[in-house]
Write a structure and sequence with these properties.
- Pfam families: Acetyltransf_CG (PF14542).
- By secondary structure, this protein is an alpha+beta fold.
- The chain has helices spanning 52-66, 76-84; strands spanning 7-9, 14-19, 22-30, 35-42, 70-73.
- It has a single domain (7-90), classed as Aminopeptidase (3-Layer(aba) Sandwich), CATH 3.40.630.30.
- The protein is globular.
- A five-stranded mixed β-sheet has the order 1-2-3-4-5.
Length: 98
């Protein structure tokens, strides 16, 4: 399993994996009061089924934890990942149901 570098493209408001000529990404909205909304995950069709989306989510969640942000997972893919890996619920903002 390849280890892709997580890039936080702050200008584009998205986390990225560059995989060959492809771009896998998670778009976000970050507030000034320490909240981050993950709004959309996109993995090119050519990369589907390789676990790249899950690895991207895992690295993004680790980065959010390191930065001590409160997570609001609006993206269904991210919410589904958290449901399958309930330990990550510790990052979800209190009162938000995954």
């Amino acid at each position: 399993m390849e280890n892709y570098e997580l890039i936080n493209n702050t200008d584009g408001n998205q986390y990225e994996f560059h995989v060959g000529k492809y771009l896998a990404k998670i778009e976000y909205i970050k507030t000034n009061n320490g909240e981050i909304y993950l709004t959309h995950t996109e993995v090119p069709v050519a990369l589907e089924g390789q676990g790249i989306g899950s690895r991207l989510v895992e690295k993004v969640l680790a980065d959010i934890e390191k930065k001590e942000l409160r997570l609001i997972p609006l993206c269904p893919f991210v919410a589904g990942y958290i449901k399958k890996h309930p330990d990550w619920r510790r990052l979800v903002m209190k009162g938000f149901n995954v």
